[in-house]
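QA checklist item 7 of 12: single-chain prediction sanity check.
[x] sequence parsed
[x] length recorded as 289
[x] structure emitted
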Amino acid sequence: MKFTAHRCVFVVLIALLSLRCAAHQTSPTDSSPPSPQAPTDKDKDKDKAAQSASGQGQKAGTSNDRLFYALPNFLSIENTAQLPPLTTKQKFAVVARGTFDPVQYPWWAFLSAIGQAENSEPGYGQGWLAYAKRFGTTAADSTIENFMTAAVLPSILHQDPRFFQSSKGGFTHRTFYAVSRIFVTRSDSGGTQFNYSEIVGAAIAAGISTYSYHPHSTYIRTPTNSHLFIPSDRTLANAISVWGTQVGLDTMTIVIKEFWPDVHRKLSKKHNVDTPPVSPKTSNPLEKP
């Protein structure tokens, strides 16, 4: 568990550095205005579909955005300060929608494969059965943490689980703002509160995870030792480590959420500039001008 989480932190850090570089890098084509391009019917259909999906998300008080066009980012709101609070039903619905999104299953499989390769929580052993146990543990850890921090405690404490992006100031200011959202959040009434949902919710999730289904102390057979003792993972030190890792990962993720809209717009702009214009008069090579 520890080694897998640390590898995830490293991956997120690399992604954060990539976002910063992309946000500050200006491509040569950005300095000159793009050539006019007549939108095709297909482009118009895509724009209408995107606007419809975005409109539905905003009406529900959530979004339909995806980090890197894949990972669910439904609780991030950009440039929308005035929104009605989410009801308890909406909080649970949007968390369930993101947690059980189809992209999560290969992600859990990937994390489980890393854990298998690093032999994290050696009490599981090796082999396909051990991998299945690691997959189940990874899925359960993610599910419990998501619901505790974004649905259960926000509903009990009347706190808003959404992340409201700033998009103001420089990189340092925006990074500080994003990090501060781990400790500061909005209440359902619009005020500012300490983010008990994140800090306490992650601690509760770590406790449930550690003391319910993670490995007990056991003996396993290895090529060099037929009766190797493996201590229990159900310890306070491990629970604290899991809690710290989860808060750290959430912090890195929320910083990425702050800068993702900028990167998304730059990528979309570059795509539009690089697409050659199509003239109706010359689109058919067999047609005479």
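[x] summary fact logged: Helices lie at 2-24, 41-59, 88-99, 104-118, 128-157, 171-180, 196-212, 236-274.
[ ] second reviewer sign-off
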